## 1
Amino acid sequence: MRAPSAPRVIATHAALLLLTVATMLPLLWVIRMALSPSQGFSIGLSLTDFTLDNFRSVLATTTSTGEALFARQLFNSLVVSAATAALGVVLACTAGYALSRWSFPGREQLMGSFLVMQMFPAVVMSVPLYMLLDALHLLDSLAGLVLVYATTSVPFATWNLKGYFDTIPRELEEAATMDGASRWTTFTRVILPLARPAIAVTALFAFMTAWNEFILAATLMGDERAYTLPVVLNGYVGEFGAEWGKFAAGSIIVSVPVVALFFVLQKQLVEGLTAGGVKG
Amino acid sequence: MILLGAAAFAGEVTLWHAWRGDERAALDALVSQWNAAHPADPVQAVFVPHESLATKAEAAIPHGNGPDLLVFGHDRVAAWAERGIILAVDPGAGFLPVSVDALRVGTHTYGWPLACKSLALFRNRALVPEAPPTTAAMVAAAEAAAGPDRYGLAWEVASAYQSAPWLHGMGGGVLREGAVALDRPENVAGLELISRLLPLAPPDPSGALVTQLFNEGRAAMVLNGPWFLGEVNPEIDYAVSPLPAVSESGQPAAPYVTVETLLLAREGAEARAFGAWLAGPEAAAMRQSQGRQVVAALDVPAPDPVLAAFRAQLETAVAMPTSEAFALHWEPLARSLRRLVRGAATPAQAAAEAQTDYAIVSRPPPPESNPAPWLVALGVAVVAGLGLAVHRARQVNWRPWAYVVPWLFPAFAAMVLLVLCPFVVGAGVAFFETDGREFSFVGIAHFLDILLARDFPLSSPLSFWSTLLVTVLWTVANVAAHVSLGVALALLLREPWVRMRGVFRALLILPWAVPSYITALTWKGMFHRQFGAINAILTAAGAEPVSWFGSFATAFAANLATNTWLGFPFMMVVTLGALASIPRDLEEAAEVDGASWIERFRHVTLPLLRPALLPAVILGSVWTFNQFNVIYLVSGGEPDGSTDILVSQAYRWAFTRGHRYGYAAAYAVLILGVLLLYGRLANRLAGRKVL
């Protein structure tokens, strides 16, 4: 490959730098609000009145009886999101594999119906979901929330995994089957290890679904101790006046784990995101 | 075990509230005090975000899952009493008469009045030493105090709640003999008064901005309520006084008063005992001193001057009406106020338009229709469908299903149960007229109303067809921007000689990793006319500042910029993945052959990317079509609902335009219909089955 010309190198770096800075601006603003002592929506970028009070007061919330709340809500968020990721991936792996490997009557329609379910506007669904979970005695429980989130994440997860399974050569399975391995053994021993990047990405997506959602969580959970962090954050920007400083501080705390996951999984993200497409 | 750990303790009295800051601290202290004295039946106070409190209460209490007590404004009392959500309570004597009157429905009273909230006039004493008794004095003081970068008077003009005092001051008001009469002459006079006050106020002020201006000493007087006390900058020497009398009429500019009420949702001696105590003088004194509340109880120590001013304001304040007709006027009046602020309507036009909009929002429901013919038709359709399905099924070889089903069943069953069922039930409401309690069958009347544009002229931003046009434009513009930016960045990032590739890539993915409601709210702030970063940059570059949410094109652009920022990383990552698996020999060969980079991209790279990008584009367009967060949080449909897309319209019909669930459900069904049509079209365009 030929060495690139100097102007091209400079132009590429300049473009990347400019766009990256533009991308970072809103995030810098959030950081600025979090560190500002006023609860206003300030623009000044000087850091003279720097304070960590917002972080302190967000971390120090308690219930009426004085129980520490933040740790509990963080724990809820982590448990719900991790369980959603696990359940979502398990459900989507087998479905994605079947859709990738076998042709059967109704396969196309099934793939389509998974996508159609992505089209349902959520506006009309919260009340029926509430009644359904009530009937199943899953209201006010983190398990109910996990079930709802995991199902919401299944269509995209299935599509993505199916796209990745498509790229794994069938010869590998045929070889394993010749050696006498069952379908299930081949799937768990041969296919799943190869699909690790796609599984990581899919899990990350399911995790994010649960980590960021607040409308259903606020409706389905009756108790402050059962809330997840986004519900709490949303509470800071209420009807009468907003506590922007605390909102921003909470936002940063909520964002850090997902940002960290994105950094760690960067390579898998690029390899494993197929969105159902065919690569190359 | 962990997953099921959140159930309430038996025997406990639960209380839902949305109080924050000092009010919450005072409540928590009082609850602890009560619990120390009554260890057998303790009270548990649970904070619920204000936006979810009403929805949650309406869903939970009829199912027996609700709290024993809840704190809410008195404006829902009539509706909830009628639905049996709350129980009658006799609060007894010892409360401000206006607070008890507000809780009376028929012959009963519902709840214990806790605190009264109304607007009053805050003034910066350094700028306005004396409380102005009349509007003429107020205008004079405001003009004297104004200066470069400082405003004489600020209030949230576009809020029907905050502007109501000026209508009342001219003898106007929303209701006349129980019916909404926004266009009566007194209200036109009130809007004229507002127009005369507008030059004193900052352009386009939001509630957060009013707060900020006062705290920075840049607004001499503001209209605000007791909730502002926790946020006011202690360095400002401020005082509160009742709103002035309007000089032209001699009548007081009367704000609404909302009575924060402790409502009884479940019968119980403990709950009643606690309720009476929390509202009573002892606890009220504590709520006044610690929680800084304007308490409704009479027998309390004299409050400090600030709270005393709020209490004095109650003598002229108007109790917020509780009727359903009144609740429907907020949105039409607010829309007209925004037009007035923008200069897009005269006071008389604004009043007339508000009344017209109100008439549309409050139009009577479609007549009940007989379900029998529809049931017969449905039955025939089901039988025919089944027959066709059986006929088709006979011709198909079902054997592969034997081994496929176990693999597919878990995912499919979960989706049918938790996605399909709720949607079908929710969509079924489209054939009914309901306010959440009684259903009456109306057939396809809602669909006809929507599709035939019976309520609005086709060109109105609220009509289905013009909203559909905006939605399609929104989707196409977004997907085009996401894909071109994503692909361009991916092409830049793939070059092995780019320095710090990993760092760039990581930073460019960030918008995707941060929750979208956080960044959408941040972007809204950045587009603010006066204090936003975007206008600061424009001004620094020598351009005129833009009022972003004042016209369709700029508001649409603001939404588009936000959503592009949120959406390009996905396309970038998909493209990067696809590029990694494309051999570069072809491109290099083309380069050797002398093809320009545009030709190389069009004829070599793009065709190779197509199979990977196509499903991402289709998925992305479905997501964008239903992108509620950005529209709702950034432009909020401004101006006049013209940037609303179908999903946000459906939301407004369900929750802010008077709970027309049936109408909203019909919208949702139509949204699905449009997307299904799009799916068929996409298959055609793609030349293969993608959907």
## 2
Amino acid sequence: MEIKNQKTKWENKLKETEKKYLPRPIRFTTLSDMDVLDLGTPLDLESFDYLKDLGFPGEYPYTRGVQPNMYRGRLWTMRQFAGFAGAAETNKRFKLLLQAGQMGLSTAFDMPTLMGYDADHPKSKGEVGKCGVSISSLEDMERLFDGIPLGEVTTSMTINGPAIVMMAMYFAVAEKQGVPREKVRGTLQNDILKEYIAQKEWLFPIKEGVKLVIDTVEFCTKHYPNWNTISISGYHIREAGATAVQELAFTLADGLAYIEASLKRGLKVDEFAPRLSFFFDVHNDFFEEIAKFRAARRMWSRLMKDRYGAENEKSLMLRTHAQTAGVSLTAQQPHNNIVRVALQGLAAVLGGTQSLHTNSMDETLALPTDETAKIALRTQQIIAEESGVAHIADPLGGSYFIEWLTNKTETQALDYIKRIDEMGGMIKAIERGFPQSEIANSAYHYQRQLEKKEKVIVGVNKYQTEEPKQTINTLYIDRSVEERQTRGLAELRKKRSKKAHEEAMRIVKEAAQNGQNLCDPVLQAVKAYATLGEICDVLKSVYGEYRETGVF
Amino acid sequence: MEKIRVLVAKPGLDGHDRGAKVIARALRDAGFEVIYTGLHQTPEMIINAAIQEDVHVVGMSILSGAHNVLVPEIINGVKKAGLKDALFVVGGIIPDEDISDLKQKGVNMVFTPGASLKEVVDYIQTNAPRRG
């Protein structure tokens, strides 16, 4: 009561002050356009219960982080996404990053690979090696990890539609290196639902797309116990224009859909859920992002416990990777991007991420050069080693404003999840185009705010310079990569055993027709040097392909 | 006067459609007739759509780096099929060194990251061909 009285007095004082010093003529909202408090006080957290809402780090509901000692034990994994041109070029970049102190690898594939086409397919023309590394066969994958001991590094692979094939190729390389299955560690993105929602690199219809994901969950649960089977990703949803709340809600709703599908397959929640991990964007609005990470952990642990009766601590914990927002980078005054990335990276760490990719300043222009990739890595090393923020778990926990914002983010996200539940779950919601249209609306709303200068981007709609455009060196991928890959594939098709290849492909097709788990058949096929495109074509002949109607 | 018809196309395998959709809405709100192709279109599909809809403007959104190959193929095809006066506009991540080359090959304008909706709308308003 006393606080309330005092606050009323203070508010009068504030009014007086604002008569003299007018507030700046803007709406004080987050980047996602959520109104913020003028001041946080205990009055904003009236039903707040420390033990129930926060607890301790490493304890339910994990609001304060998933480890009791957080970064005092182990720093987050610095994992820079890399991939371009052919396997040999990317292998060199991987080694450079490992030498520079990076702790895990993260593979970016080119568009044809992401869409399940070989480098020599007509649709691959002009795209080979441009946005990532081109991998069409086990031979490419062997070259990609040449000289890198797969029992000692963890590798993340950003691939979804044909994830089962890339996973098989990676496992095959590990096997050739003699790495025992339980020592193979890494993460497959393998989140097909967000492809239909946002990233749009799909192959098969939704039902079959999800079936393949669950095949990998089932197979790895039995045979690759330390492999993270799905990285449930909000990143692409956010980059496509979603608000922070939408990113959070749609990502968790995707996660719930995978849980349901795995349970239907007959798996037990505590067997497979510990190997699900998450991937979120970190955008410009510092506090909004921190609140999002904290809310995500609390929501997931409660959903897992209340809906599915999960008991294993690891099923309840939301472990996440984070990447700074590519969409926030500007082509204008590109050096400013280093500062944006530093702030975003700091927010991810204060939000308690387990792993982080910091973008390079030139990523809005091209793939990063060796130099810019190194600056990006150094940025997080500075956050880790110099700023002191890694010394204490959840340092912002208990801030009235942060707790209020965490609560508000959670409430709004839960409201979305309820609406999706009412539609019959995420798969049904996607079929109705619900998340897609919510995201498109937000993207358009934000663009209009930019045009009206209600939101500011330095160097783009404010503080523009009249000087000639700042130029920086960028990485250029020429078409020789495509020619080289095409030649390599022609040779491979000639030299592999025709008999072994045909037999393996026949088994893949039969398994697909019979609805069997495809992981082992695909693993045998890649070992017989069947290519990515060949395997995907066989699956398409059985499953068909996804088509989206182009609405805007 | 006849409404200006704009084809907003997504050539190639690139799935980034945020920009294309935002532009499509802005053009519609500005009074143009907008036809959006949807994703993953081959040059042939785009050429056919442009001819069928008899468009004044062909807008192509590419963020994957495949512009040097796909864009000239589309322009040649559209011109060959008879739409000689169409305006060709490209938006996306296009390195500076590629822009002049694309312009030589028939692109009228390239919009790169940071371009405002108003610039795009004004450009099309001013430069789209007027037929009959």
